[in-house]
Amino acid sequence: MRAMTEPTGPDHPTRDAGFGVYVHWPFCASKCPYCDFNSHVRHAPVDEARFLAAFRAEIAHAAARTPGRVVSSVFLGGGTPSLMQPATVAGLLDAIAAAWSVAPDVEITLEANPTSVEAGRFRGYRAAGVNRVSLGVQAMDDASLKALGRLHTAREAMEAVAVAAAHFERYSFDLIYARPDQSVAAWRSELGAAIARAAEHLSLYQLTIEPGTPFHGLAAAGKLVPPDDDAARALYDVTQEICDRAGFGAYEISNHARPGAQSRHNLLYWRYGEYAGIGPGAHGRLVTPDGRVCTITERAPEAWRDRVERDGHGIVETEVLSPEIQADEFLMMGLRLAEGIDPARYARLKGRPLDAARIATLTGDGLLRRSADGRIAATPRGAPVLNAVVAALAG
After folding, report:
1. What's the domain range around 19?
2. Per the domain annotation, does 318 fall within a domain?
3. C-alpha to C-alpha distance for 271 and 19, rounded to whole angstroms
4. pTM of the predicted model, to two decimals?
């Protein structure tokens, strides 16, 4: 890795939140019925060497647009990145280290599914430079896993967590709650079992029925009935209660960690930092001489690869973000965090401050709180209705 240098380039209010690299591996062994991510099943072996070459080219293209950056975090997401061979992961990380300076304490996370966790492969990922893994456990009982379309059993999931613990000091796993017919008592038991096996971090997501997914069709036909708003709120409330008591405070609405164990890459997103989006369907936020831009790449994996081989990158859309869009994105992302936002940063992005009267009204209603240093954050009452809080605040 090259020696670290100070960031250079345009002076912009989002440059101080760090620089990360997101790499999207789009392939999965199967498509879960609730998933609307850009993931694809291929029944023939994926040509990893050819895709790696395309990833290298797109990394080089992104680096040419962002000179002088220091990478503070890398996230290998998907899809199922743990379907990659360790040599492919090593090639990706080597390309990133060749393209930018890398911080000595860089966080490098790889997402994994329990069905693709093997001790030998995890040793290979660790040797390649991965220092944190995130496991898609999703549920702790076999009936729920089957209903969610998962290929692993609860036992296999916990065996995968044990393998992760043996090879990585930092690991996390995901659970989905507010599932059909899930009771508060059942969730209490399941979450307690998860906390007993978690080292430092849990991502706990309420099931959402996304358009275009099989679950959406089932829900429209009345064959899948998720909890109503009151039941979902009860499950959310007990999640906060149990996690807080166990020392896994919510640093973001759906993410819980012991002190100091937050995902740095995810914090970079929520703090509205700068990141390069690499791979099929990846989104990026880069600061360029034209301002902060959104980049979106071709979604179809093979079409993305062919485009990169032809053009040197797979970007199909680049939008210069207006001050209004940047401020709104910053507000929506930042208020998801327990630490909230710095209103002065909002003012620098938008060119005018937040409305003091709206802040006062939302604070008086118990939906916002203001800390001694002036930061604004959602209260426990405001977090579950954050979209409404943001809409009222942004006006």
Report:
1. 15-270
2. no
3. 11
4. 0.93
